[in-house]
Amino acid sequence: MHLSPEKLAAVITIVGSVMFLAAAFFGTPRVFMEPSAVRKLETINASPGLWTVAQIGFGLGAALAAGGLAIAALHLGEQSLTWLAYLSVALLAVGALAWAGHLYARADDPVTFANGGLPAWPLMTYFVLTPAGFAGIGIILLRSSVPDWVGWLLVGSMVLILAATAIARDAVPLVYYGPTLVAGVMLYLHRP
Asked: What pLDDT digit, counting tens, does each position of 99-110 carry?
């Protein structure tokens, strides 16, 4: 079976989004809701293998979702928006690298993570660049044959997420991957 670049992009986006969401919901999600460092560490230590697998799922899921939408943007975008496609891909790549570094650090040293001792800049880099990159891809989708609401979903949700991040100086990354999942499904169902 031969997949077009658009269908391949859709499948990669769907797999990445589902992988991230699965890691969020099944990979010790209580850790992120615990106010106490001691309770966070107890939760991690109760299932250290699950904690590590969740970090891998977060990293691979984020990279695949970003990669899938990047492929879509590069194949669906108008020639005049090629610069935006490359900029969006660059933002997503740098965000994914920062995220991977953060995930490695929290898997490698859960004590420092639980105590809030990891450097903030990799996480904030991911929190800003990733939704900015997804919003850029949404703009490209608005100028493609994909239904407009898919592009607006990415642009609108990511702008709101960026505003919330600026206000709270924190984010819940799983909110990025609901809109990317919907976009992936719509890309798959799309008939050019």
From this structure: 999 999 999 999
